[in-house]
Amino acid sequence: MRHNKSGRKLNRNSSHRSAMFKNMARAVLIHETIRTTEAKAKELRGVVDGLITLALKNDLSARRQAYKVLGNHQLVKRLFDEVGPRYTGGNGGYTRIVKLSQPRVGDSAPMVIFELTKLAEQGAEVTAPKAEPKTEAAPAE
């Protein structure tokens, strides 16, 4: 019987699953939005929400626990300094799953976009300068 065994297996063994979710959590913190299957996204939600909850605690123990998942000091710093403070004063609702209309081509798996609800401000990114309209020179007489 399968009592008290939560979570999807996703046709992987436990070490492969944990490594996959660590990699996906890193990708979400770097890019803030990723494209994946619906089943993986629903399982990933618990991992990423747990990391953001740790970032809201903001103590040494929480940083060490986040490092166990992320394995990168720069990502832990970004999680605690940039991503975590966006969610202060809220209870949950850190991630969003948006279903895509087209399934994956190879196996028809339902695809989703997994993203953080509060994305980085768009004004912070460097934008390319707009091209100025060309003025025609007056013909010489």
Automatic annotation (TrEMBL):
Keywords for this protein: Ribonucleoprotein, Ribosomal protein
Complex formation: Part of the 50S ribosomal subunit. Contacts protein L32.
Biological process per Gene Ontology, one example term: translation
Pfam families associated with the record: Ribosomal_L17 (PF01196)
Annotated protein name in UniProt: Large ribosomal subunit protein bL17
UniProt record similarity statement: Belongs to the bacterial ribosomal protein bL17 family.
InterPro entries: Ribosomal_bL17, Ribosomal_bL17_sf
One of the record's GO molecular function terms: structural constituent of ribosome
Keyword Transport listed: no
Coiled coil regions, renumbered to chain: none
GO cellular component: cytosolic large ribosomal subunit
Family annotation (HAMAP family): Ribosomal_bL17
